[in-house]
Task: structure prediction
Amino acid sequence: MARIYQTNNMGEADVRVAIAQRGNADLLVHRAASWDLAHGDAQWFITRERQNATAGVYFTSQGFAQLSICFVDHTSEAGWTRPHRLKGCLSQGGA
Result:
């Protein structure tokens, strides 16, 4: 499951993320309403507690990002759009 902590400090982040339009995103992300509904890299539960997170993300510009995402409305839309070196890192930690 992807439990994501948003940090305001790039040095604390595991992954630098840019928000992109759907056609340019590496990963389509659906925000899970609860911890239990977050599965895999594409279902994010946003936590306020760093110690509970599987990954810390820092939102930045496209030029500095390691990963581009687009938030989607439905669980069925979420997932990787192409092969990516970070696949599995958001849900299991260790980017």
